[in-house]
Amino acid sequence: MKRFLIVLFSFCLFGYTAVADEGMWLPSLIGTQIKDMKSKGFKLSAEDIYSVNKASLKDAVVLFDGGCSGELVSGEGLLLTNHHCGYDQIQRHSSLEHDYLTNGFWAMDRSEELPNPGLKVSFLVRMDDVTDRVLDGVSDGMTPEERKAKIDANIDALKKEILSGVEGKGYMVSVESMYYGNQYFSFLYREYSDVRLVAAPPSSIGKFGGDTDNWIWPRHTGDFSVFRIYADENNDPADYSPDNVPYRPRRHFTVSTKGVREGDFTFVYGFPGSTREYVTSDYVDYVLNYSNPVKIRLRTERLDIINEAMESDPELRIMYSSKAAYIANAWKKWQGESLGLARLGTLDKKLAYETAFIEWAADKSEYAGVLSALSETYADRLPYAAASDLFIESVNAVELFGMAYGVAAAVTNGSDLTAVYKDYSSEVDRQIAYVMFDEYMTNMPSEFIPKEVSAMTDSLGSIRAYVDWIFDNSVFASADRATRLVGTTAAELTETLKKDPATSQWNALAAMFTEVIYPVVSRTDAELAALYPVYMRGQMEFEPDRNFYPDANLTLRVSYGTVEGYREADAFWLLPNTTLEGVMEKDNPEIYDYDVPQRLREIYETKDYGRWGINIGTRKEPFYTVPVAFIATNHTTGGNSGSPVLNGRGELVGINFDRTWLSTMSDLEFDPQMCRNIIVDIRYVLFVIDKVGGAGYLLDEMTLK
To answer: Which of 69, 369, 375, 683 could disulfide-pair with 270, CB 3.0 to 4.6 Å?
Structure first.
């Protein structure tokens, strides 16, 4: 540990710069990168990015709904994020009568803004290095379980201490590991729960191209939505109330209307979710050859069923739009990740690196056996991790099992069952169950299949008959049947849950997972967590001149780079900007995801672009269009969706929403030649709000430059 802290101190003191634009940097330590950032066009100081003593750019960034990022663009709580980040809220407000997915939603004054129960945003108040406190009492002689228990106890005590030191409502704290448990930071947040939908473009803008264009460049998607944060009269967090007032942020972003050009500096400020840059070849092998293939296959089968249902019925399209988008996002990402890892030869690179590391570590007792211990633990974990993936992506994907407990909770609380069944089709779920149970029973090792399930399947004669038995006899399979439970006593409800085929079979399946599969996954995870700090320290000593950044873990980070195209294939250079011309070239009224709003067609025909039009022709032969999206070399991942993309002056130039398909392996290996993040140009956002939505009044409260 002392050696690691010396290496880390040297890294912080001398500030080695990263190669290319790789890295997700902690904002409180961004001073180590400022010299490199300034060489690429950054004009501000480290304290402008992060400060606890004055308002800084961090105060305009939020963690949105626990998994996306967002940014404040006015002094009255106006917030931008991605359309796909706000998709759940847009979908929940949608119906056949008010189809906000298809038609968009535009509040024309604050009285029309829509509340969203359960939606929360969090501001980072401060972050602090708490390594000594978390590792206090942790020793090398501990078992993995003892080590984990001690760290967890220290973290619990530290959280209570931090919260006891702040006054006011809405504070929460997390303590997160950096460098695989060699360093720990505390993050104090303030959470606001009255967040209202202000505007969303039609899906044919906000989700333009759908799954076909997802993860693809060139891209023409206006992936944004608009919310507003509300607070009480003291600007403190408060539950929804008509008496609440717009939140007054410490800082909001100035919006640049000047745009970007190739070579311009950009930085992304947000909450990247998860990367694994320093793992061993065993992990890469599992992802590439075990986990991804199974998950891709099962999600392909689910999506085929859901997409067919959505195409057959407008009501089913509304019901399943959000679910399909969620399933498809990771499904396509995993495909690109596997292609990227194979193209880069990441597995072979890891193996070669480990061979060199083993040779270097041979006479160093702390590191000599760490790779073999990691490999043995991964081998022990493999069959259980594979069973876990198969379980989660197959039978756990059957919604009926979760519906049962949702209904029980609603009956117990006296809630309306309509809300439980609003986005559920028993017939679609049955079709999914046929395929998912076939996958489960065919590919799950017999020792991981509950005897209750195999016995019933054998008794009924087929997997299809087994699924029909569950759906035909479960009281939870439809709203009409479930209404029989309204008014029943707690004892009667408990008895129903015990006997119902959906819950009885699920209980057997869940017991196998929680009692047999998960304990081994959990145990080996604890063993890996005890070994990886040693391997991480070893890597930092093995490569003393390498600038190691901590893996992403949904904590606030800065990544920076430049606007730049890339060579996707031989003689195939992709430019870094797209325009409205590309949108209209793809416009197709016969395809839902490409059927642009009639209003946009009219604007395009008349070239009524207003201040948002740009000339991409010449002075003699002007050609006016509207910018749509651009790409840059920023290192991003899931969680960066909705992140503000800023220029060298800290002004908002776009909203991050995606990566290129062959960039998705950057969670494991960053390739500066190929990795690009995709950004909706803020000028397109403003254009759509103003000219398509007719909500130009929203721009009046922004600071435009």
So the answer is: 69
